[in-house]
């Protein structure tokens, strides 16, 4: 009888242990959506990843873009080891539409992020909060750290900027150089004439006050580079092709929790928000390069070596001016053969660097 009981207990344990393990696994995985009330709006957040692990708030670019599609890359590299909060900033993505331009300011976005941080801290009392921001998200992270670093454990600034005029002037100089070289080497008179027109417009932009800059920004960052044979955002053509193909994949949209219709609506919201920011002189003339000296928390500064969207020296400038971060707690990584979209252009190196950084400082 005792032998039978022992066999029964063993069989029961062998049966129940996998179920218990699977139950524990299910408890740690999270994928939920919520809205956080902020002043005159609600912000969408999708929480995805391991609920037992450190929390990272993802700050998207733009201004006006959305976080949903960054899940595509983070799911393979970060979401097993972290809980990622994909935030759609005011007016962007699945957050409420915002047509009030007085609410579309850098100061308001910092206030909004502070509400999000407090809300998530209240929800996850045992977790410290980390930030990762890409492009404009990197800038927003720096702005937030200047005012509220006491609430943040560590911050990864990816392709962000602290000096807004520098990349504009640097890109103008780059395009002037390319246009002059093409004029000198081209035998096509029509092409030469077009390059001269580009030079004339570049001079006009260079001498402007950068006030109403949305249309000029599109010329400078998109139209002119295409005509001059380079790309301010991409250094790796294969990576760009992957991005284009992903854009045709319905499963890609489904994983981001978007229909094609919702994506189209989000892009319209993106343009609305971005136009307001780019037609605001204080945004175009942003310069917090000296202000970031107050930051003392761990910071990772990442940039592609060919990132003309923010200026190739931007990361070095930021790192140099993080004067109060202890030497052992600030890191600089310039990634070769890459520009602005590091998660695609240098996927393995980018995520290895990010994981190594957060592995040291997140708890």
Q: In words, what does this structure look like?
A:
The protein is α/β, with parallel strands linked by helices. It has two domains: 28-164 and 288-361, Rossmann fold; 166-233, no CATH class. Helices cover 51% and strands 15% of the residues. It is built from 14 helices and eight strands. The protein has an eight-stranded mixed sheet with strand order 1-2-4-3-5-6-7-8, with helices on both faces. β1 and β2 (41-50) form a beta hairpin. α5 (165-185) runs antiparallel to α6 and α6 runs antiparallel to α7 (214-228). The longest helix has 27 residues, at 2-28. Mean pLDDT is 93; it is low at 1-17 and 19-23. It is found in: Cytoplasm. Keywords: Aminopeptidase, Cytoplasm, Hydrolase, Protease.
CATH A-level architecture of the largest domain? 3-Layer(aba) Sandwich
Beta-strand level of the residues, as a percent range? 5-15%
**Strands across the major sheet, in which order?**
1-2-4-3-5-6-7-8
Can you identify the CATH superfamily of the largest domain? Alpha/Beta hydrolase fold, catalytic domain
CATH topology of the largest domain: Rossmann fold
As residue ranges, the low-confidence spans are 1-17, 19-23
What integer value in Å does the Rg equal?
A: 23 Å
Task: Report how far the terminal alpha carbons are from each other.
Answer: 50 Å
Descriptive tags:
363 residues, alpha/beta, Rossmann fold, 2 domains, eight-stranded mixed beta sheet, 14 helices, 51% helix, disordered N terminus
Ordered list of secondary-structure elements with their pairings:
Layout lengths: L1 H27 E10 L2 E10 L4 E5 L11 H7 L5 E5 L18 H18 L5 E6 L1 H13 L5 E5 L6 H21 L3 H18 L7 H15 L8 H10 L3 H6 L4 H19 L2 H4 L14 E6 L9 H8 L8 E6 L6 H4 L1 H15 L2
Parallel strand pairs: 3-4, 3-5, 5-6, 6-7, 7-8
Antiparallel strand pairs: 1-2, 2-4
